[in-house]
């Protein structure tokens, strides 16, 4: 973990943030996930945000990220959700038919801090493996 320096402070912040798709619909396929990664890189350029790992299951997303302490967790979640939803509706208008009311993400979220002395690699591996089923990574002796 490295210290990030800003104009008036130095910090090490790491957050594990999870939020679901509206109505828990299974909309996060591989194409949408790739688009979220692209949009995430654009958000990183505009805000003091670093997405260290992103993992998506079909109906929710996990972010392992760091951002300037001047932003609250709620502000960063709101920023990420609003920009990604707007861009997804532009690039994939077909997903609007599954969602009425024009919202892509659910209102709630989960957030946890990951301390300096915590086992960072465990959290990183957990997020990276989101959406991977055990049968995808286990060796199979026979194909049925």
Q: What global shape is seen?
A: globular
Instruction: Please give the order of strands in the largest beta sheet.
Output: 4-5-3-6
Question: What is the β-strand count?
Answer: 6
CATH-level-4 superfamily name: Transposase IS200-like
Whole-number radius of gyration?
Answer: 17 Å
Helical/strand content category:
alpha+beta
Beta-strand residue percentage: 15-25%
Q: Report the average pLDDT across residues.
A: 87
Order of helices and strands: EEEHEEHEHH
- Biggest sheet statistics: 4 strands, antiparallel
Count of helical segments?
4
CATH topology: Alpha-Beta Plaits
The CATH architecture classification is 2-Layer Sandwich
Could you walk me through the main structural features you see in this protein, from its secondary elements to its overall organization?
The chain has helices at 30-46, 73-91, 120-128, 134-137, and strands at 4-5, 10-11, 15-20, 49-56, 60-67, 110-113. α1 crosses α2. The protein is globular, with a radius of gyration of 17 Å. The chain has four helices and six strands; from the N terminus they run βββαββαβαα. With 144 residues, it is of the alpha+beta class. The strands form two sheets. Strands 4-5-3-6 form a four-stranded antiparallel sheet. The termini are far apart. A hairpin with a 4-residue loop joins β1 (4-5) and β2. It has a single domain (4-137), classed as 2-Layer Sandwich (Alpha-Beta Plaits).
């Amino acid at each position: 973990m490295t210290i990030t320096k800003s104009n008036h402070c130095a910090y090490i912040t790491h957050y594990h943030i999870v939020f679901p798709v509206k109505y828990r619909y299974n909309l996060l396929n591989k194409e949408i996930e790739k688009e979220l990664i692209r949009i995430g890189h654009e958000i990183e350029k505009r805000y003091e945000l670093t997405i260290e790992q992103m993992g998506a299951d079909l109906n929710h997303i996990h972010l392992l990220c760091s951002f300037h302490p001047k932003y609250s967790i709620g502000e960063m979640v709101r920023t990420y959700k609003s920009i990604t939803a707007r861009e997804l509706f532009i690039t994939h208008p077909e997903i609007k038919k599954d969602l009425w009311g024009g919202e892509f993400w659910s209102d709630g979220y989960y957030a946890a801090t990951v301390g300096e002395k915590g086992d960072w690699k465990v959290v990183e591996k957990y997020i990276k493996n989101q959406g991977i089923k055990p049968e995808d990574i286990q060796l199979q002796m026979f194909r049925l």
